[in-house]
């Protein structure tokens, strides 16, 4: 009987959480069928069957986690799907004329188990990360949902069943209205769970929200990045007045031809890829006793999602047009927010661009995304008075901050790359050359 094991679905994955089993014990399985949805550190992925057979056992239930390589289920010929010992014990009943002393202990009437609840005695709300996300999207108050997962944990199926049984749930809750319009990538907060009666005032002011797999892995990786990679930061102010005008003209031309519009960030991504090709010294990774020089320019674009941060990768960005980059980043950003990105679409990056300009942030520093050696933080363009031709004029100034890993990129190397990038952005026709 082949075991179904927890797969490695991303290059940083160490464990996975079972979001929901798509097949039940006893179901016939054909190779290629989707067996289970697994939440990784980056997304929710589908696991397909490699063998034909019958799903005989589920070893790791919905909402539970398991390390990579751990068996989570068993596929066989169907002979192993017999009821577990607990099931006949519940069904058995003592014969009416049999003496009580002769009734086996396991056949005594079983006290009904208390109804599972998502709110245990310590006041913490037990729910899987996927269930929390669905609850926010559908406007479901988790405190009202009966959890059927381990220890009363609320799982995805519970949210769906509750929402279907409660007409108008999504429309009646402000949280659902906030998410349905997709106005922004920020998460919608779950209503705090009150502390149990009798707790201290400090306890009543605090609610514990379990981290999702993505958040836990991101916390560990970025902490390790700050501890192991000696960061230094280079800042440049870029005059993007001509770039903004160029984008306006380019979009008018593309619109007339029926093409997609490009954003300022699309031009920045293309310029970064062009600068990396010209300055390959930054396209490296630290690997202990040696460094790796990457021959391809794969630019990661940071995307905010409710569960954290995802970085879809534009491969060979230096060889793609601005329109191709715009279409790809837009499509991947939408799928990132919907949880539809594949693991291979978020791995293999050699440099990352993180842009907070749309939030009005003029300047910030970003933590390097290992194993990359640099990350570019892009702020908002703001009007400033600058000397030009002997006169004071108003120009649009954008600030870039390059975070560098000093183990493989020194100050001069980072400065030359940033200098090349600034020259491209201030002379936008060179970006397309």
TrEMBL record:
<feature type="domain" description="Peripheral subunit-binding (PSBD)">
    <location>
        <begin position="126"/>
        <end position="163"/>
    </location>
</feature>
<dbReference type="InterPro" id="IPR004167">
    <property type="entry name" value="PSBD"/>
</dbReference>
<keyword id="KW-0012">Acyltransferase</keyword>
<dbReference type="InterPro" id="IPR045257">
    <property type="entry name" value="E2/Pdx1"/>
</dbReference>
<keyword id="KW-0808">Transferase</keyword>
<dbReference type="InterPro" id="IPR036625">
    <property type="entry name" value="E3-bd_dom_sf"/>
</dbReference>
<dbReference type="InterPro" id="IPR000089">
    <property type="entry name" value="Biotin_lipoyl"/>
</dbReference>
<dbReference type="InterPro" id="IPR003016">
    <property type="entry name" value="2-oxoA_DH_lipoyl-BS"/>
</dbReference>
<keyword id="KW-0450">Lipoyl</keyword>
<feature type="region of interest" description="Disordered">
    <location>
        <begin position="168"/>
        <end position="204"/>
    </location>
</feature>
<dbReference type="Pfam" id="PF00198">
    <property type="entry name" value="2-oxoacid_dh"/>
</dbReference>
<comment type="similarity">
    <text>Belongs to the 2-oxoacid dehydrogenase family.</text>
</comment>
<feature type="region of interest" description="Disordered">
    <location>
        <begin position="94"/>
        <end position="122"/>
    </location>
</feature>
<dbReference type="Pfam" id="PF02817">
    <property type="entry name" value="E3_binding"/>
</dbReference>
<feature type="domain" description="Lipoyl-binding">
    <location>
        <begin position="1"/>
        <end position="76"/>
    </location>
</feature>
<dbReference type="InterPro" id="IPR001078">
    <property type="entry name" value="2-oxoacid_DH_actylTfrase"/>
</dbReference>
<dbReference type="InterPro" id="IPR011053">
    <property type="entry name" value="Single_hybrid_motif"/>
</dbReference>
<feature type="compositionally biased region" description="Low complexity">
    <location>
        <begin position="168"/>
        <end position="201"/>
    </location>
</feature>
<dbReference type="InterPro" id="IPR023213">
    <property type="entry name" value="CAT-like_dom_sf"/>
</dbReference>
<dbReference type="Pfam" id="PF00364">
    <property type="entry name" value="Biotin_lipoyl"/>
</dbReference>
<protein>
    <recommendedName>
        <fullName>Dihydrolipoamide acetyltransferase component of pyruvate dehydrogenase complex</fullName>
        <ecNumber>2.3.1.-</ecNumber>
    </recommendedName>
</protein>
């Amino acid at each position: 009987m082949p075991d179904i094991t927890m797969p490695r679905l991303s290059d940083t994955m160490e464990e996975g959480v079972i979001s929901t089993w798509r097949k039940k014990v006893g179901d016939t399985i054909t190779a290629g069928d989707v067996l289970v949805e697994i939440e990784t550190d980056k997304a929710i992925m589908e696991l397909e069957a490699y063998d034909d057979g019958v799903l005989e056992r589920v070893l790791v239930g919905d909402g539970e986690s398991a390390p990579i390589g751990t068996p989570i289920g068993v596929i066989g010929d169907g002979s192993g799907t017999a009821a577990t010992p607990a099931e006949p014990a519940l069904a058995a009943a003592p014969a009416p004329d049999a003496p009580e002393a002769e009734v086996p202990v396991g056949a005594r009437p079983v006290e009904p188990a208390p109804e599972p609840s998502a709110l245990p005695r310590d006041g913490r709300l037990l729910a899987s990360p996927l269930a929390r996300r669905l609850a926010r999207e559908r406007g479901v108050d988790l405190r009202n949902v009966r959890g059927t997962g381990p220890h009363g944990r609320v799982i995805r199926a519970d949210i769906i069943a509750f929402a279907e049984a409660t007409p108008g749930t999504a429309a009646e809750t402000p949280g659902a209205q906030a998410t349905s319009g997709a106005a922004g990538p920020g998460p919608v907060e779950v209503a705090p769970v009150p502390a149990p009666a009798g707790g201290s005032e400090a306890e009543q002011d605090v609610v514990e929200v379990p981290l999702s797999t993505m958040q836990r892995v991101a916390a560990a990786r970025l902490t390790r990045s700050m501890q192991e990679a000696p960061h230094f930061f280079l800042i440049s102010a870029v005059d993007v007045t001509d770039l903004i005008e160029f984008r306006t003209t380019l979009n008018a031309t593309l619109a007339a031809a029926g093409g997609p519009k490009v954003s300022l960030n699309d031009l920045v991504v293309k310029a970064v890829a062009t600068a990396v090709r010209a300055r390959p010294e930054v396209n490296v990774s630290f690997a202990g006793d040696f460094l790796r020089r990457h021959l391809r320019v794969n630019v990661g674009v940071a995307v905010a999602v409710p569960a954290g941060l995802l970085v879809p990768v534009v491969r060979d960005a230096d060889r793609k047009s601005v329109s191709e980059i715009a279409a790809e980043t837009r499509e991947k950003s939408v799928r990132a927010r919907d949880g539809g990105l594949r693991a291979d679409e978020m791995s293999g990056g050699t440099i990352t661009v993180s842009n907070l300009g749309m939030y009005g942030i003029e300047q910030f520093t970003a933590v390097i995304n290992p194993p990359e050696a640099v990350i570019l933080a892009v702020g908002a363009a703001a009007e400033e008075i600058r000397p030009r031709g002997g006169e004071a004029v108003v120009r649009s100034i954008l600030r870039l901050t390059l975070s560098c890993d000093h183990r493989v990129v020194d100050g001069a190397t980072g400065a030359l790359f940033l200098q090349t990038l600034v020259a491209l952005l201030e002379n936008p026709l060179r970006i397309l050359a």
